Structure formats: structure tokens, C-alpha cells
Amino acid sequence: MKKRLFLLFAIVVISFSAYSYLTNPFHTITIIQNPFTTFVQGDQIEIRRNFRLQIRKDILSTTFAQLKCAFHIVSNVYFGSQKSKSSKVDEIIAEIHQLRFDPAKPYLISGDHFSVLYPRNLGVFYLATLDQTTALDRKDWLNRQQSYLLATAYGLEAFTQAGRISTTIVPVAPQSVSLLNIYAYPSDSLYGLLYALKTLQTPNEATSSYHLQTVSAAKTLERWYAPKLTELINNYVQTVYDPQTQLVKTSIHLSGAKDITKRTSAFYDNVILWKTLSLAKELGFNYQSQIDLSAYKQKILSTYWYPRGGYFLEDLSPASMSDHYYSSDWLAAFFTGFLDPKNPNELPYFEKSVAYLHQQQIDRPFGLKYQQQDRATRQFPLVRIFVPSYGGSSIWSFWGAEYIKLLHILSQGTGKTAYEEEAQYQIAQYDKNIVKYRGYPELYDEKGEMLSGLFYKSIRMTGWVVDFESARK
């Protein structure tokens, strides 16, 4: 009897592993088909829809999707995170580009175990993808545009077909996906897609020999998805916004870039809601909300700014309010344009926040930790048990790159050389790490070593490197 049970268990595990492998579109052998194809016509990149994605909502598909995500994370610890073949900074970066920006794949991923689509990536970790000043060559620039366009189309197709949004879109069959919320309803998935739609139509004004070729295709996506996308925007606002407090609801938890932590009306989530509605307005979506964006911005500033400390409070939870919690994802106020360091009236927010995080050594040995302590009790159970530093004292390369950009702008605006010196220090540390680890790791432990444990290992070859390239530029 025991032998039969063991045999049955072995068959189940092997079958699950094999099917997980086959439904990973980033493996050499895969059954997953691409719902879209891009092609060049004249000087424009156009997009063609091959089929409509099917949304699997049954318990078997959603359970498989959850287990598959966990399986890939754990298996990466022991079999993934391969090093670059190169040993020089620029060659390693070029290898990452070749690996991550592949228009033969259906969408963009951070890398390694994250083989599913997180639409937030388009407006956060991959926000610098279409910075043409960092294009390595014409082929790289073309690949980056196509990959970003395909990921945007994939997210729009899945959400509009499902009639709802999620943090994660998981391929589960050749033409089918399941939608998961890891760990809660998303604050930034719609933001990521609207940011992408806007960016795909907005040429960078910086001098470059490359020009944006996705304007026509982005307008095609708008034409296909505008009505249902408007419905999703309305549902999103109704789900997260409290007209009584004029802020994100305190009765719900939301998943954002710092999705591992349970937060109550976080500063990040409010800034993202503000930006989502700003983008919807710019793109011409007639959503129903009557939120006054100017008044909303002032409400956010007056609620979250902590004058005595000189930084923004993390959220409105009792613990955060009493202990004045800080979190480095306040930098969302920078990359979304919620606040402008070139505006004299808004400059003090940045200078004081940078002074605080520097004084607390949140940018040491290099930037940027989310906070000084792990505060593991605020994290979701799986993270708290297996990787308590993940959303705490670990160093995140994306926030480090945004920090570098901000330091440079502060140096230009104030004339204070200390900002530029600090930016150069941070760049030098990242250059060293790229060579040391033969990649661009997603995150490091608090001592500056690439994060690795029994159940989680940092992505080594992450496409987030485009944001660092933008910072260096």
C-alpha cells in the first residue's frame, strides 16, 4: 500500500513538474502560443492578434497556477539564476538585453523564476525600457519596443477578457491563462498598462539616433480595448477609493511593488491611484470618478508627510502612525511625476527625504533598502517564514537606480556637489556588483551580497538593468 501511494505521489510530482515546464513560455520547449505578433511596416512596428486569450477560472487551473508560481521560485534556488558568460559590465548588460528583450516571447518578465506576467512591471521595474538614449544598437532598440508592446497587449487582452484585473497573469494552457492576486488586489496593475499605452505613443525628447516606432500600434490597442478598459478603470476606483476619507480605503490591503507587506492605505498606493487617473485623463478615457486630482494630491501630501522626520509615512496603519514607519517606495512620487524635484516648492520633500535615508544608512553599503528593519510581522505569512528580509532590509536594485537618478537631478538643481558624488558612488558599487555576480541581481541582503536562501534566490539576469542604464546615462 505504501509503495502504491509513493508511486502515485511520484507520478503526480513528475507530471506537475513536466506540465509546469511546458507551460513556461520562456523554456526552449513550450506549448504556450503567442496571442500577438509584431511586424515592421515602413518605419512603424505594427501588431496583429492571432487569437483571443481564454480565461480559466476553474479551481484546477487556478490551483495549478498558484503551485506553478511557487514551484518556479523554489526550483530557481537550486537550478536557476545562471551567470553571464561575460565578465565586463557592458558585455554583461548586452547579454541581459539579448535574454530579456526577445520579441519571440509573449511578454516581458523580470527573469528566472518569474515566468508569469506582472503588468505592474511595465510602469515600475521596466519603466525605462523605451528610453532610446540607452539603446545598444538598432536591433536592441527594435527588440525592446516589440517586447514592451507585446507585454502591454497581453495584459490588456487578459484583463479585458476576464473583466477584472489582477497582480499576475499565468499561462496554464496553449491559449489560456489564469489570473492570480499575489497577495491581494493590485494597486498598480492598471497603472502599468496605462503607463505603457502612454509611453508607447510618447517619443523621448532626448537627442538620439533612434525614434519611437510604436505609436500606430499603441493606437490600435486603444481602439481594440478602450470600452472595456474604461470599465476596468471605473471598477478599480470603486474598489480602492474611499470618497469619505478622499484616500485609498483603510479597510482593504493592496498589492503593489512592495506586495509582500500588509499595508493600510499606503502612500505608494495613493500616489499610484493618483497617477493612474492622471494617465486615464491624458489618454482620453471617460471614467466616472469625480476625483479632483489637484485636491487629491494635496490631501496625500498633508496626510503622509511627517515634518518632524522629514519623510513620507509608509501607510495609515496604527503601527505606522505611532512608530512613524518609512519605506523607500516613496520614490514612486519621483518616477510618476507626482512630485517634481525641479519645482522649487516641491524640492524640499526630496532633499529632506534623501537626508533622512542617508542619515539612517538605508543607502549603505549601497542603495536602496526598503527600510532599516525587516518588520516581518507586517509581511504575509509565506514571506515572513521563508524570506523575512525580502520587503525589509534587503537592497533592491530598482530603487537604487531611481535613487541615483534623483541624486543627479538634485545636484543639477541645487548645485550641491555632494549629491553628484553620492550618485557616482552608487553607480560604482553597482558596476562592481555586475562584474562580481556576472549579472544584474534583483536584490541583495543588507550586507550587499546577492540574496540567496533555502527557498529564494535573487534573479541574477534581470531586465531591470534598463533602469540602471538610464541612471548611468
Describe this structure in words.
It is a single chain. By secondary structure, this protein is mainly alpha-helical. The protein has a single domain (32-472), classed as Glycosyltransferase, CATH 1.50.10. It has 15 helices and eleven strands. The protein has a three-stranded mixed sheet with strand order 3-5-4. Strands 1-2 form a two-stranded antiparallel ribbon. The chain has a two-stranded antiparallel sheet with strand order 6-7. Strand 1 (36-41) and strand 2 form a beta hairpin. Helix 7 packs antiparallel against helix 8 and helix 13 (397-414) packs parallel to helix 15 (465-472). It starts with a helix and ends with a helix. The mean pLDDT is 94.
Order of helices and strands: HEEEHHHEEHHEEHHEEHHHHEHHEH
Secondary-structure class: mainly alpha
- Quantity of strands, as a count: 11
Look at the structure and give the CATH class.
Mainly Alpha
Low-confidence stretches: none
What is the strand arrangement across the widest sheet? 3-5-4
Helical content class: 40-55%
Based on CA atoms alone, the radius of gyration comes out at 22 Å
| Percent of residues in β-strands | 5-15%
Number of contiguous helices: 15
What is the CA-CA span between the terminal residues? Answer: 65 Å
Task: Write the CATH architecture name.
Answer: Alpha/alpha barrel
Task: Round the mean pLDDT to the nearest integer and report it.
Answer: 94
Characterize the overall form.
globular
CATH third-level topology: Glycosyltransferase
Overall number of structural domains:
1
Main sheet summary: 3 strands, mixed
